[in-house]
Each structure stands twice: as C-alpha cells, then as structure tokens.
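Suppose you are handed a protein chain with no further information: no name, no annotation, nothing but its sequence. What can you learn? This example shows the usual starting point.
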Amino acid sequence: MTTGENPDPMDLLTEDLLTFAQAAQEIPTRPSTGQIYRWADRGVSGIKLQSVWVGNSRRTSRQAITRFLQQTQRPSVS
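A reasonable first move is to predict its three-dimensional structure. Written in structure tokens, the prediction is:
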C-alpha cells in the first residue's frame, strides 16, 4: 500500500475507492489522469495522494482526494 506522507492510511473497507480516471472527474478543476498519477507518485510540496493497488489497477478514494486537496491548498493572502 502506498500512503504517501499522510500519517492516516487509507481504509479500504470504509473509503470509496476510485480509479484514477474517476478521481480526475471528482475534482472540480478536472485534472488529467496523468496529473493524478503524478500526485500519487511525486506529490506536491512533499504531500502525495494516497493510493493502493487493487489487482493490477491503482486506486485512490474520495476521502484521500479530500485530504490531499486540503493539505496542498495554500491559505489565501488577505
């Protein structure tokens, strides 16, 4: 299991698993599937999108996307 830098691992029994293509459709800015792979492999500012291998398919979850976006969002400057 690849959990990135997040100390809370994905819970496969309770989280809603998505393919990376499905994950891209869940995000309002509609990143490419390749971008989802980069977030999981390389991360952003040291934070990786949590993902797991299910058979020969890599998956993430709605909850992991929410955590990733919250952690990588920069506070707005007032």
